[in-house]
Amino acid sequence: MYHPRLKGNYYEMGNRYGGLIYKKGFRFPKVSKEKLEYGRECTPILFDFYPEVIEEIKGFADGCQVTYEEVSSFLFSIGVFDMPAQCSIFAAYNGSEMLMGRNFDMTLDLKKYTESSLVCPKGRYRYIGHSDVFIGKVDGINEKGLAVAMTYVPGNNKYPGVNFYFIIRFILENCSNVEEAIKILSKVQTSTSNNYLLADSTGGMAVAEVTPSSIFIRRPSIGEEFIVCTNHFVSKEMEDRQELNRINWSKSQERYQTIQDNLRRSTQIDIEKAKGIMSNSEGHVCLNLKEEKFGTLYSLILNLNELSIYRAEGRPNRSIYRKDDRLFNEVTKRPI
To answer: Candidates 3.10.20.740, 3.30.450.20, 3.60.60.10, 1.10.275.10; correct CATH number of 86-333?
Structure first.
């Protein structure tokens, strides 16, 4: 896993990172005509939503010596033309601290592309975000103690719109709490169906169940201080907006139930208990599908009040969780 630190304006961040990986031998993959055409449809939508990231993509493209169209179309197409990640996430409040657990499951050969970036964009909130692709993010925590992570939900996803990679980043850079993030998700034109689990340091939490044409905000059940999502919609309002026959191969419902059961049994959730939940291989939370060569690439436990991350780089039942204080140190040394 790479651990880059990016700061400055958007073009500078993109150009620095693109140039760095180009010097290390990275060469941008060829992008099909179909994806290029799809990217052209999505670009004006992204520009209206998040014009700054257009500059970052241009900077990255210049650093990698390719065109903006190639980079943007590649990013827009993930989750639309390709099989995306299958993940497990929860948030839980113990009365004084908000914790989030997150396993990122993907084809095993993508592990070498995973990254954990400290990003300090000029004039925006600083954050640590994780991904399996440059520029975009699939989860993260920002300096305000807001965390967001996504899971993919199978559906009819060939709509022009903003990819989850950019939505996650926009939320981390611009939102300070769950309700602000929900407002963003309610307005953006999305291209894929996803769950977005949101949590903040005040104890707020929700799952936004999102398709290109609809959104439902799911809250914790009455009497419970936690919420869970895997790779299917849970609410009755959204259950017919997914392709159920494409869900079970990755054990989505088993993973969901395993996490739910463990959280209900935990009288006081803490970091060690959270690690145990995300390391559970019997309930497939720590995923290892040998035939498909698919499994957990990394695992996170976030403490939103301390701005700390405990990260296992690999399957958590075989890897050590190591503490990452980069965001805390950045905020402490350079307060706004």
So the answer is: 3.60.60.10
